[in-house]
Amino acid sequence: MDALLLQILNGLDKGSAYALIALGLTLIFGTLGVVNFAHGALFMIGAFVAVTLQRVLSLSFETIDPTQKDFLGNPLKVKTPYVESWFGPETGGLIIDWAVPLAILFAIPIMIAVGFIMERGLIKYFYKRPHADQILVTFGLAIVLQEVVKYFYGANPIQTPAPDALNGVANVGAAFGMDIVYPVWRIVYFFFSVIIIAAIFSFLRFTTFGMVVRAGMADRETVGLLGINIDRRFTIMFGVASAVAGLAGVMYTPINPPNYHMGMDFLVLSFVVVVVGGMGSLPGAVLAGFLLGILESFASTTWATTTLPGINQIIIYLVAIAVLLTRPRGLMGLKGVMED
């Protein structure tokens, strides 16, 4: 039971990232009909927003501390972060320590702006083009963004730690009479994902804006005939989808140190998740994300990899093949989508 619960937790951890990225992908496909292969790059940009904020908050200046001396008796030069000099050592140190959660406040407007620029500057010209053209142009954009990040931040992963208060482990099995410890930040990431997913679904279901968007996803032409500028609303949803991907990247930085190719690493898996869940189905994307995350976790156990070497690398693709052969539209896809 201990091993079972631990693998489920690992699966929910991976599934959270898959579900968030797949949710954004599905929002874009469901509203604009665009297959956006640059969506993984948005996840990467969000992660580097956190990296950038941490570096900015850590900027420091040198002062001479007469109380500290080197072996020759000379006063030492001490680096003091500007934030600590402005707010005091305790408050300033706390701000630096909580750089990753604070990055959320900066990532939301930055990612919405990036989404608007991407959609208005490039993707809008490919709405009526074949999906193959959309894939080629967005994949090329993803490579450009990846190389830009590589140029400014280097090729090596950048350690971006979680706040000290959330950097330990918690005994999650105590409630079940088991002794299972799990990293606190991974638990935080799961609940953060659930909150974002619930917020998106609530926004689409319980707001007038969201209801119009859902109506436009079902029948764009009719909504347009009612005098509603559905294109503008879809552009806003592209920005929202970009923000979702960016927030997923921000919070994932303590789990996986950011590097320039992390977007590509998640992109292919997230597209598999979208296809399994059903193209254009938001509930399907979330369900498939968590299900495939749990399956991948169990496939990574010692027993599974010993019995079937390499199964952890291909399990998601095997499930995708099985689903597409038996149900081409995906688990929760609309009838007729991807079936012709």
Total DSSP helices: 14
Would you count the extended β strands for me? 4
By CATH, the architecture is named Orthogonal Bundle
- Binned, the helix content reads 55-70%
Q: Would you tell me the overall average pLDDT?
A: 86
CATH class label: Mainly Alpha
Report, as a whole number of angstroms, the end-to-end distance: 44 Å
The ordered string of helix (H) and strand (E) elements is HHEEHHHHEEHHHHHHHH
How would the global form be characterised?
Answer: globular
Give me the side-by-side strand order of the main sheet: 1-2
**Uncertain stretches:** none
Count of folded domains? 1
Q: Which structural category fits the helices and strands? A: mainly alpha
Beta-strand content bin: 5-15%
Which key phrases capture this entry?
mainly alpha; ABC transporter involved in vitamin B12 uptake, BtuC; two-stranded antiparallel sheet; 4 strands
Structural account:
The longest helix is centred in the N-terminal third of the chain and has 31 residues, at 2-32. The chain contains 14 helices and 4 strands. The protein is globular, with a radius of gyration of 23 Å. A hairpin with a 5-residue loop joins strand 1 and strand 2. A two-stranded antiparallel ribbon has the order 1-2. The protein has one domain (2-326): ABC transporter involved in vitamin B12 uptake, BtuC (Orthogonal Bundle), CATH 1.10.3470. The protein has helices at residues 2-32, 39-57, 82-87, 89-97, 99-121, 131-153, 184-206, 208-218, 220-225, 230-252, 262-277, 282-299, 302-307, 311-326, and strands spanning 60-69, 75-81, 169-171, 181-183. With 340 residues, it is mainly α.
